[in-house]
Structure formats: structure tokens, C-alpha cells
Amino acid sequence: MNLVTIAIKSIKQRLLSSSLTALSVALGVMLMVGVLVINGVVSDLFSQPSFGFHLVVGPKGSDLSLALSAIYRLDRPGEPLPYLFYKELKEHRAVEKAVPIAIGDVTEQGGFPIVGTIPEFFDLDYAYNKPFRVRGEYLKTPWDAVIGSRVAATNGWNIGSEFKLIHGGAESDHVHDEKFRVVGVLAPTGTPNDRSVFVSLAGFWAISGHEKPLKEAVDRLEKFRYPVPQSLRDKAEKPKKVGDAHAGHDHGHDHELLDEQKEVTAIFVRTKSTAASIGLAGEINEDVRAMAVNPIFPMKRLMTMIVDNIKLMLLTLTSLIIVVSAVSIFVSIYNSMADRRREIGIMRALGARRETVFTIILAESALLCLGGGVIGLLLGHGLVAVASPIIEFRSGILVNPLSFEPLELVLFPVLLVVGSLIGFLPGLAAYRTDVAAALSD
Amino acid sequence: MSGRFNSAYWPDVGVRFTSITHGGGMSLVLDNLKKSYREPGGGRIPVLNVSRFELQTAEQVALIGSSGGGKTTLLNVIAGITSPDSGRVVIDNVDVTGLNEPSRDRFRALKIGFVFQTFNLLPAFSALENVLLGMCFSGKGTDSHRATDLLTRVGLGHRLQHRPPQLSVGEQQRVAVARALANHPSLLLADEPTASVDIANQNTILELIRDTCRENNVSLLLVTHSPDVAARFDRIEKLSDFNRPANN
Questions:
Q1: Is B125's Cβ below 8 Å from some Cβ in A?
Q2: CA pair distance B69, A226, nearest whole angstrom
Q3: Among A350, A358, A439, the residue to mutate for chain B (most B Cβ within 10 A)
Q4: How far apart are the first and last CA of chain A?
Q5: How far apart are CA B185 and CA B173, in angstroms?
Q6: How far is B138 from chain A (nearest CA, A)?
Q7: pTM to 2 decimals?
Q8: Do both A429 and A362 map to the same domain?
Q9: Under DSSP, is residue B217 helix (H, G, I), strand (E, B) or coil?
């Protein structure tokens, strides 16, 4: 038997009130752990230090929106770029590899974002020195699809599974008739690629309704200062005949779109050197047609301006909850001191020093805080486990309930200090107990 | 009785103190002991004025006193729970009144066993744990084997894990006796130990205390207001015979 076991006995003696006070700490810690873990995941996601490419090129507009839509698939894509722009960019002297993507649709099952791209997409590492790994094969035919690990797990898809797309996002009810077939499943990457479905760009364009109306295509080409073939201009001027719509047709034939009709949402560019990317970005951004963004910068801005502030706010809030819990522990222990006067008197009569009874009260308070902290830690990760599917559904951010934030370790020394502070005044009351008076109560 | 005061080191307490050396085996000496309490009006009420009291090693004394006569105060002063206004309490040649409070606490844990009228067991602790608790504060560590042995000797070997509310009144007092002897004390102070138990248990408890003290060579100072209880002792002292507070 030692002072800690005496403190534990004392806690057990007032089980209900001890449990309730520990629970209040646990709830505070649970919320704090939840905030830390989710925030950590969001921070990691948006603070990716490098990508397999240097620049993402898209239409003029918000660089943050471009990064969120093209890389994280969290935002709606902006106006598309002509395919001819991609072809031009690909030939630039500074470019080592340029990979176009087309996004906007989602899977009918699960609402996962569709990324139309070319097989070279998978040549770009998803993070520094981290190449994609696939079970099966990459995109070969127009109706092939490679799915992220999360898509496979959630939808129960495997190689050979077939699926349809919803046009324009989950809130649309226009389901395309064309079916894609899974030919590869990516190994987990911990990036938005896990919840993405990659289809052949050729197939993406071949879907009915994805082809640009000729009039718009002509206008876009003119805006981008590309020469418009006379044949295309003539076709665009012709009134559309009834029955020309492709809706309802199967994909047994190719649309045979002209390059002038094709569009891409964004282009990932790996330059021959990092320095070259700076020059290329400057060159593209001087032009009025498109912009090039190193995604690290807008994401850092997002982190600093929004995510970090939200984190600070939530941490402040949860800290206040813990403070309130701490006060309730203090009240509980302090109120119990009157009932425990005799108990303390007995211990003192048995030879316990003033410091000893003070330490017992302090240990009791610290144990309640630490016990509540451990329960809160478990509940916090449980909360994340419960919340992660909802977060994923609503924001597309994958949260692993077992993710551990180093700051969680700091919680325990802090709780120990808080526990000691809480126990100080009741401990002092125990320290000052008049033994003779306590025994005669 | 005359004594010789020396400076010595008592390792169990870990402090230097003034000891008094007697010619024979003296367990307890009260020397010119005075204690009074402050009145709300500012005056003082004298409670103790003991010029001399001695208890030989392994001696058993019944101390009779009327209610409010200062019996409990006397025991508290002897145990070092309450400090006297003046005078000296010497236990096993150690001047307890000369020790500082932490040393006095440690001394109490090691050398004095206390049996209370209301047992003062901790309800959340089992019988065994209550005995171990007595050892816990001695600084010597706990000895489950000895605690079990003591409880077995007081007839509670089969109820080690029972908590006080699960024990009868007589059994609770037996646990208190075992706890009081846990640290091999040289002096056992018993404050009306049979006042809360029925007649049948009175005898049992009383004999238990006396027998265990005898077996362990422990001096016993038992305070009672009952002449029947006192009659069992060879030496009976009336508190009023040697405590004259009015002379303060």
C-alpha cells in the first residue's frame, strides 16, 4: 500500500462523484483530441510539402480554387482550357511532362470525383519520391478506369467492376449511360487520389454531353487566340437538327472530336528544373489566357489564414471546457473535504504527516484528471472514428481515427499540472486539519 | 524520580533529540505536564496539570476518569497529536514534546498504537488494508504477512478482505487492535475501547488487547469510565488523583 493506492481507494469511495468529475474532464479531452486529430489530418493534407509536379495550370482566377479543385478535388472546377493550350504547353522548352485532367463528374455510387486523364498521370509521383503503385493496370482503352484505394474499399469495387458517372457533381441527377470498367486499383497514398476515380481522358470526352457545343468551342478558341478551322466555323454556324443529340447512344463508336472541341480542366506540369518552373509560371501568368500556380503557396496561405485560426479557436474552446471540468473537480474535492476531516484525522493519528495527507489529496486530484484524460483520449479517437465517414462524405477529406497528433502527448503533463493545481487548496485544507478536533467530530 | 537528560540520535525518527535516561525500564513518563484551552472570551480553561506519571515497560494501567475530565486530551498529548503548554512527555526515553511535528508524527507511527472508542477504521479499506494503513505511514513499508498474522491472531483471519461496514462492531474493534499493534509499538493507548461494544464483546476485546500487549511486551494505558473494566487491571489510576487542572 502506498499513497497512490490510498488516493485510488478514496476515489473509489466516492465513485459516483469521482466518475462524474473524471467524465467531465474526459469530455473536454475528447473534444480536444477530436479537434487535434482532425486538424492534424487537414493540416497534413493541405501542407503537403511537395507534389510530383511543379505547377498546376488552369484558367485565370483564384489560385486557391485551382489548387482545391485540381489537386484536392474539393472545389468546383473553373472555366476549362482548350486542349490546344495543353498541346502548346507540352511543347514548351521548360516542360518535362505535362498531364491534362478533366474533372467535374462523380461516380453514381459513393459520389467520388472523376478525373479524366492520360496514362502519364501515373508517372508523376503523388508526393516527393513516392510513385503510384497499382494492382492491375493503368489506363489503356477509353473506357478503362483506375480507382483509388478508398473508392475500392467504400464501394466494394475491384478489377472488372463497372460503374456509371453523374454529370456535373453529386447534386445533379443526370446519370451518364456510358459505363467504365475498373482495370486497376491504386495502393493507398494518403492523398485525395485515394478517393478519386481516374478514367481515360478519351473516354471522358466521349461521354455524351461532354463535347463542347461548337459555337462555344469556337468562341473559346478565339479567346485563346487559336486559329479556328473554317470547317469548324461552318459547322458551328449550321442550325442543329432534331435528333442530333447523342443522349441515349452507347459508346460503341467514337465521337471523333476535333482537338479544337476538346477541353481540359487543368494541367499538371513538371518542368525540367525547379528554376525553370519559376520562369514558366511567370511566362504563363503574364498571358491573359491562363495561370500557373505552385500549389504549395496558396495552400500555405489557406493554412495560415483559415485552418490555423479555426484550430486556435477550437483549441481555445476545448481548453475552456477542460478548465470548466477542472473547476468541477475542484468543487467536488473541496466539498468532500468536510466529510473527510475524520478520515484525515485518523491518518494523521496513525502517524501520517501533514505533507502526506496533502500529497494524498493532490494525487487524488491528479489521478482524476489523468484518468479522465486517458478516457478522453480513447473517446476522442472514437469520436473521430464516428465522425470520419461524415467528414469524408461532406468534405472529401479522409480522416484516419488512429492518426496521432504529438500535441496529444502534451495533454498529459498539462493535466497533471491542472490536477495538482486543483488539488492544492483541498490539500491545504487537509494539511491544516486539526487532528484532535477531527477525531472528536 | 530523577532523570538525566542527554543529547542522542534516534535513527527511526532521523533527528537529534534530547533523551532522558532512567534507572529502570520506563515506557512512559509525564513530567509537569500542563494543557489548557483558549476560551472564546479570551481566557483559558485548564484541562491538564500532571506533575508526575510513570508507566513501566509492559505495564498495564487502567485510567479512570469522569466524562470531560481530560482523558482524551491526555491521550492526545501523550501521542503527540496535541502539544502541551508546558512539561514533558517521555516515551521509551525519548522526549516527545521536544520533537518537531514531522518527527513526532513519525514517532507516533512507529512507537505508539492507538485504539479509539469509535474504532476509526476507514470504511473504504478492507480489514487487511486498514492494518496495512497503519504501517504505511511508519516509513518502514508495509508487511502484508504481519498484517495477516495480526488479524489472524485477533480471530479475523477469515475476514481479511471484508470492509468495516461488512464487519460486526466487535470485529471492527479487533481490526483496530490489530492496526494499533502493526508497527510493533512500545506503548498502546486505548481510549474507551469497549464503550461502543456490547457486554459480551467487552470482555473479549479487553482480553484481546491485554493479551496481545502482554505477548508483544507493549505497555498499555487504557482509559475508561467503567469501574468494571478498570477492575480487571492490577494497576488502576484515577485521573483526578494526579491531574489537578485547577492548580494551573
A1: yes
A2: 116
A3: A350
A4: 27
A5: 18
A6: 7
A7: 0.67
A8: yes
A9: coil
Let me know: does B242 contact B44? Beta carbons within 8 Å. Answer: no
Q: Where are the domains of chain B?
A: 4-247
A347 neighbourhood in chain B, CB within 8 Å: 122, 133, 137
Domain count along chain A? 2
Residues A399 and A285 in one domain: no
pLDDT tens, position by position, A206-238: 887 776 677 777 887 877 777 777 777 777 776
The radius of gyration computed from the CA coordinates of chain B, to the nearest angstrom, equals 18
Domain closes at, from A260, A294, A328: A294
pLDDT tens-digit map of A13-53: 888 888 888 888 898 889 888 888 888 877 777 766 667 88
Distance CA A15, CA A345 (A): 22
Whole-angstrom Cα distance, residue A399 to residue A401? Answer: 6
Q: Is B216 on the interface with A (CB under 8 A)?
A: no
* A244 and A328 fall within a common domain: no
Closest CA to B7 of B95, B83, B87: B95
A366, A256: one domain: no
Judge contact between A343 and A357, C-beta under 8 A: no
Region at A270 (left for phi over 0; alpha for psi -120 to 50; beta for the rest): beta
With b for 16 or more beta-carbon neighbours within 10 A and e for fewer, the A88-120 pattern comes to ebeebebbebbbbbbbbbbbbebebbbbbbbbe
Whether the CB-CB separation of A149 and A187 falls below 8 Å is answered with: yes
CA dihedral A397, A399, A403, A408 (to 10 degrees): 80
Triad B160, B162, B165: Cα angle to 5°: 140
Instruction: Give the range of the structural domain holding residue A323, as residue numbers without chain letter.
Output: 3-46+301-439
Residue with cell 519559376: A278
Does CATH place domain B4-247 in 3.40.50.880? Answer: no
